[in-house]
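TASK: fixed-backbone design
INPUT:
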């Protein structure tokens, strides 16, 4: 892949890859066995290296949002593979954290809620109350003491609400799951009200994309608006995870599906010829380096939409195949997923030998839905 980045070969390589990937998508869809093997290899590498720093990443606290995003994908893979080793890995995390949400950034911060998605999924599998109670009590407190902070970026306690687009992956699915599990609609009502507030604030109606936060409203990058790939990937995947918990036909379902479809239409237009989404979605020519976290979340979102009858397969299937092929090109022989952009809030850089756990979570989420597409 290093040849892609030699200036003299860039245009020709992109054109060639585009032609090849389109033909591949039409005639060489991946096999179930190939997808399964690839996910297993990546999941095994990540578990083996989970407690070790290296490859551009440090070891994060078990409740950190980075790991929370990994657990979301790992849980999907554990359910698909039906191998107890993966469920046991996640249970071990829960035992270590005593099934508590994070606290580093405060009770209200969406990042600290992410790990709750895994806890609630394990509760569904086992029915063990200890997996449910801490998360439920945490959210009950917020229900009775909702934040009064503003969504504006430079106001006090501003991240006590979802005023950055990443938050729409981290917290809303926890609230939606709680309603589905308990039957208590208060959780869902709170989530929808906050989701609408965030969308009204950050969603660009012309581009059908989300700004990362208010600080990007007036910024440009090489003359284009700044719409960060992984940021919008957080939203697109988060929408899929939340909608999965809702009853079709309800007002909440219709509201979120409408946003999801608008994003899907625009994101299809922005996929590059080689199957990735550029780190700056409107500035692909300035960010030719592959990036796998945004691409993974988008690929997952599209495959999920097809599987659930929300997107037309004929219109969107090729988007999925191209995205999956692009991700496969970034997996090393031993199972490390490379080209994951490091922690950040805007377009940047990625490298073939650097990874991060949230990128693996996106990869496993995508692979799980693509596997289902082939069933």
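OUTPUT:
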């Amino acid at each position: 892949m290093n040849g892609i980045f030699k200036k003299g070969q860039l245009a020709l390589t992109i054109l060639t890859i585009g032609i090849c990937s389109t033909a591949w998508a039409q005639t060489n869809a991946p096999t179930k066995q190939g997808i399964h093997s690839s996910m297993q290899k990546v999941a095994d590498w990540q578990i083996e290296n989970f407690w070790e720093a290296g490859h551009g990443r440090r070891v994060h606290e078990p409740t950190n949002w980075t790991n929370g995003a990994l657990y979301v994908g790992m849980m999907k893979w554990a359910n698909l593979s039906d191998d107890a080793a993966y469920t046991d890995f996640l249970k071990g995390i829960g035992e270590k954290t005593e099934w508590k949400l994070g606290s580093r950034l405060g009770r209200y911060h969406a990042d600290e809620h992410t790990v709750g998605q895994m806890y609630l999924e394990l509760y569904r599998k086992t029915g063990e109350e200890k997996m449910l109670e801490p998360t439920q009590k945490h959210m009950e407190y917020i229900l009775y003491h909702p934040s009064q902070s503003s969504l504006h970026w430079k106001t006090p306690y501003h991240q006590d609400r979802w005023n950055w687009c990443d938050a729409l992956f981290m917290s809303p699915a926890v609230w939606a799951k709680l309603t589905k599990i308990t039957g208590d609609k208060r959780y869902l009502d709170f989530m929808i009200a906050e989701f609408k507030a965030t969308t009204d604030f950050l969603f660009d109606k012309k581009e059908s994309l989300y700004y990362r936060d208010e600080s990007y409203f007036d910024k440009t990058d090489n003359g284009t608006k700044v719409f960060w790939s992984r940021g919008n990937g957080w939203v697109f995947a988060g929408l899929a995870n939340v909608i999965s918990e809702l009853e079709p036909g309800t007002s909440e379902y219709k509201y979120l599906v409408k946003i999801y479809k608008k994003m899907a239409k625009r994101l299809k237009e922005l996929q590059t010829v080689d199957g990735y989404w550029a780190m700056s979605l409107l500035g692909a020519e300035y960010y030719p380096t592959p990036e796998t976290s945004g691409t993974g979340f988008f690929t997952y979102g599209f495959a999920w939409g097809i599987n659930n009858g929300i997107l037309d397969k004929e219109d969107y299937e090729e988007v999925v195949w191209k995205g999956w092929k692009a991700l496969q090109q970034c997996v090393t022989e031993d199972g490390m997923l490379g080209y994951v952009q490091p922690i950040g809030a805007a377009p940047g850089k990625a490298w073939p030998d650097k990874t991060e756990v949230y990128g693996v979570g996106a990869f496993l989420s995508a692979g799980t839905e693509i596997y289902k597409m082939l069933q």
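COMMENT: Strands lie at 203-204, 209-210, 220-221, 224-225.
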